[in-house]
From TrEMBL, chain A:
It comes from the Bacteria. Residues 181-354 form the Peptidase M16 C-terminal domain. Signal peptide: none annotated. This is Insulinase family protein. It comes from Ureibacillus terrenus. One of its GO terms (molecular function) is metal ion binding. InterPro entries: Metalloenz_LuxS/M16, MPP/UQCRC_Complex, Peptidase_M16_C.
TrEMBL record, chain B:
GO terms for molecular function: metal ion binding. Residues 63-175 form the Peptidase M16 N-terminal domain. SUPFAM superfamilies: LuxS/MPP-like metallohydrolase. Pfam families: Peptidase_M16, Peptidase_M16_C. Residues 182-361 form the Peptidase M16 C-terminal domain. It comes from the Bacteria. This is Insulinase family protein.
Length: 420, 431
């Protein structure tokens, strides 16, 4: 898929030539160990870098320039994976061949260089008024989780399930840690990101690979670094195995957390992926067929597997009075798999869906980058066929084994005050 | 089969109108492994009063029925259609909007089998009183879920403010009370009236051979017989130009106040090129006033009146249209005032330079969007149902002038067309 070149120690460039898209896509990923403090600083940092730079000191000027480059999309974001925190810069620009008279690709690379290496500094530090304003933006982003009850309930579940652990640290930090960020600490965080982080740079599009490699090498002279590997966190234990909370709302949000010893890249990882598909990942899954289609208890019910944390979540929106009934049916579906009550049809449907999802994701430039990025650390060449074969080897007995390894650790239920 | 080439975009579109009236469009995409297919009827939540097929008098059906019908199409005597799609590795889904109901799948294998499944399940209704009753619990929870979502309430609350009579103000899913009145007979009436092939469009985009595909579809359609369908008659009450409610607020369990300013459109009887130009010019106007490069944005950003939720959008269909502008905000009144100030001074703010820049931005956005098979299929269908052509977007944008923007913008500019809707936090003792 991608051709990888080491630009410096800890800095890799991955390029893919493809004629599939009308755009050229760039992605820069900076990785560092995930702590609440680092998450907060880096969330504010990504906002501040997106706001302005030395060449375009006003946000409006910067945005106007992007518009002129045929609406080149440029944004920073933060995310996490396992014990790592990532600052990502995504850029998508129209391939010059579709623009009759005005090539933009070189201008975009120049702009990226400015955005990354020439921040908007005043006396060697980020501008205090911009830092304060962007801190406020990040705080409001964190607060807004409260307004989306599904996201809020999921956040509460992870806090209960894995307190003080990467699984429950939000990628934007917490309100308290964001408030502590100041121009000085932010400037330090910036230099640390540029000089110490593990960096992966991606380019995908209809480009000349050799020429692009040289352009990138010249434009982004990152120095050698020995990136810190994240500490292996002991899994913390849930403080309580059941928590119920009330808000002014109509629906009940049922969020259940299970643990599994099977993690990303383990030999059993493909078994766990198939297990999740049979259990609750799709519209043919046991949860959907029973909780929704058979019992009419909900509109949505699904399971999702977080392989980097060894966790599996089940979520559903139900009438509060049906909490016990829904919970019982969810556990019953798990028991069914333990007993080996899985049909060949269910297995085949799940395998077909897993393959399809992977192939479909590869039809998007961002999908190609993200999938390669996720699988590249495994000691093998990634291909859809490889994973297809692995999923096909998974048997009913394997699923029984996965089900019996699964341990229910905590349930969180959020509902209206007058419930019951 | 007709072959339509768009040279600048490097795309070729194939079209055929089948004997039963179905419009079929095929857009092959090189290099993609995926195929995305949508099968859409020109029937949405606003079509609640109409003359049923074979009937003489108009009837009004319970609210939320188009969406209910969409749910019920997936259940057959032999089971759930999702099962069949999954078996062939396809992700299937459906959605109901104000004016359309779309059934769709995407897959990387078994494209013919999946296309057949799609055509057959949408063209073979199976409704019983028992299955209809069963669905009420599921859709009831869907409605409750939306009731708890402040962003959805903000959106619909603003539309409710704008409209006196038009059914666009009714939630697409209806209410718990209205769906409780729905019977299997209602579903058949609506189905028979609106799901005739001559009221539908099939769009296929992705890794397909157009000749093979059209033959396959024709063969499938020729096996089925459809009665000749008369033109569908829909009825709408007269809608005044001004908004129904100038200002309103509700309380919810949220952290931040939220506000939308709604601008009700005057010109809602357009179609074809005229509509395309009007819609694009108004979008350009909104971007000029409220985009990230605007003076307005710099002002409200620096003064802390908006956050990352700030958004603006323009919707236009036959019979209704509106712009929505808003954000979470610590001072929703001040923000609404500033939004309206910009709208009322639009003509002084619009200028050649900004319009030129935004036109380039929009062309870039459109070309980026063409990477997405979903975007192409959904938008093409929406445009076609309004006699517009998606692939005309770039040439039309290129021709839009400052004068065009000023003129089009007048559609949403009158003071009597403006409304404000707010969601405020409930006072909480424990917080």
């Amino acid at each position: 898929m991608f051709q990888t070149t080491k630009l410096a120690e800890g800095v890799s460039l991955h390029i893919r030539k493809t004629t599939q898209f009308k755009t050229v896509n760039f992605s820069f990923k900076w990785r560092a160990p995930l702590t609440t403090k680092a998450a907060a600083e880096r969330a504010v940092l990504s906002n501040v870098l997106q706001h302005s730079n030395e060449k375009f000191k006003k946000s409006a000027e910067f945005r106007s320039h992007l518009d002129d480059l045929y609406g080149t999309m440029l944004y920073f974001d933060v995310s996490k994976r396992g014990g790592e925190h990532t600052v990502v810069l995504n850029v998508e620009t129209v391939n010059d061949q579709y623009l009759s008279n005005h090539p933009v690709l070189n201008d975009v690379i120049d702009l990226l260089q400015t955005v990354i290496f020439q921040p908007n500094f005043e006396n060697g530090q980020f501008v205090p008024s911009i830092v304060e304003r962007e801190k406020q933006m990040v705080i409001q982003r964190i607060e807004s989780v409260f307004d989306d009850k599904t996201r809020y309930a999921q956040q509460r579940l992870t806090q209960i399930l894995r307190p003080n652990h990467p699984a429950s640290i939000p990628a934007s930090g917490t309100i308290e840690t964001v408030k502590e960020v100041n121009p000085e600490s932010l400037t330090e965080a910036y230099y640390s990101m540029i000089n110490n982080d593990k960096i992966d740079i991606y380019v995908a599009g209809d480009i000349d690979v050799e020429a692009m490699r040289e352009k990138i090498r010249k434009a982004f002279p990152f120095k050698d670094r020995t990136p810190q590997t994240p500490a292996v966190n002991e899994d913390s234990k849930p403080a309580k195995d059941y928590v119920k909370e009330y808000q002014d709302m109509k629906q009940g949000k049922l969020h259940m957390g299970f643990s599994t010893p099977v993690r990303f890249g383990d030999p059993d990882f493909p078994k766990m992926q198939v297990f999740n598909g049979v259990f609750g990942g799709y519209a043919h899954s046991k949860l959907f067929m029973n909780v929704r289609e058979w019992e009419s208890l909900c509109y949505y019910v699904s399971s999702s597997y977080a392989p980097h944390y060894g966790l599996l979540y089940v979520i559903s929106g139900i009438e509060p009075k049906n909490e016990k009934k829904a919970t019982d049916i969810i556990f019953e579906q798990l028991e069914e798999i333990k007993r080996g009550n899985v049909t060949d049809l269910e297995l085949n449907q799940t395998r077909a869906m897993l393959v399809n999802h992977l192939r479909e994701a590869l039809d998007l430039p961002r999908g190609q980058i993200d999938i390669f990025d996720q699988y590249k650390d495994l000691d093998e060449e990634f291909s859809v066929d490889l994973w297809k074969k692995r999923w096909h080897k998974v048997t009913k007995e394997d699923l029984q084994e996965m089900a019996s390894l699964l341990k229910h650790e905590a349930t969180y239920f959020l509902c209206g005050k007058e419930a019951e | 089969m007709e072959k339509i080439e768009f040279q600048q975009l490097d795309e070729t579109l194939y079209y055929k109108k089948l004997a039963n009236g179905l419009d079929v469009y095929i857009l092959p995409k090189k290099g993609f492994s995926k195929t995305f297919v949508t099968f859409t009827t020109k029937y949405g939540s606003v079509d609640r009063t109409f003359t049923p097929i074979g009937g003489k008098e108009p009837i009004t059906v319970p609210d939320g029925i188009a969406h209910f019908l969409e749910h019920k199409m997936f259940e057959k005597e032999e089971g759930d259609v999702f099962q069949k799609f999954s078996e062939n590795g396809a992700s299937a889904n459906a959605f109901t909007s104000f004016t359309r109901t779309a059934y769709l799948f995407s897959a990387t294998e078994h494209i013919f089998e999946n296309t057949e499944t799609l055509l057959d399940f949408v063209q073979e209704p199976y409704f019983t009183e028992k299955t209809v009753e069963k669905e009420k619990g599921i859709i009831g929870q869907e409605i409750t879920m939306y009731d708890d979502q402040p962003d959805w309430r903000l959106y619909f609350g603003t539309i409710e403010n704008m409209y006196h009579n038009h059914p666009v103000k009714i939630d697409i899913a209806g209410t718990i009370e209205s769906i409780n009145q729905i019977t299997a007979e209602h579903l058949y009436t609506c189905y028979n009236t609106f799901y005739h092939p001559s009221n539908m469009l099939l769009f296929i985009v992705g890794n397909v051979d157009p000749e093979e595909m059209i033959n396959f579809i024709e063969e499938n359609q020729n096996k089925k017989s459809f009665k000749e369908a008369p033109k569908i008659e829909r009825f709408f009450e007269e809608e005044p130009q001004e908004v129904a409610i100038k200002e309103r607020e509700i309380k919810m369990d949220v952290q931040q106040p939220k506000v939308y300013v709604g601008l009700k459109a005057k010109n809602t009887d357009l179609s074809g090129d005229e509509m395309l130009k009007n819609e694009l010019a108004i979008q350009i106007g909104l971007e000029c006033l409220f985009g990230r490069a605007s003076d307005f944005y710099t002002d409200v950003y620096e003064n802390g009146l908006i956050d990352e939720s700030f958004a603006y959008d323009f919707t236009l269909e036959k019979g209704f249209g509106f712009a929505l502008i808003g954000s979470d905000s610590p001072d929703p009144d001040k923000l609404a005032e500033k939004i309206l100030h910009a709208v009322n001074h639009a003509e002084e703010i619009f200028n050649e330079d900004s319009i030129g820049r935004i036109k380039r931005k929009k062309i870039g956005f459109f070309l980026r969007a063409l990477n997405s098979l979903e975007y192409i299929a959904n938008q093409f269908t929406r445009y076609k149902f309004n006699d517009m052509n998606l692939f005309d977007v770039v040439p039309v944008i290129e021709k839009i002038t400052l004068e065009d923007v000023k003129k089009a913008f007048q559609s949403i500019q009158g003071e009597s067309q403006q409304t404000i809707f707010k969601i405020l936090p409930v006072s909480r003792n424990q917080k």
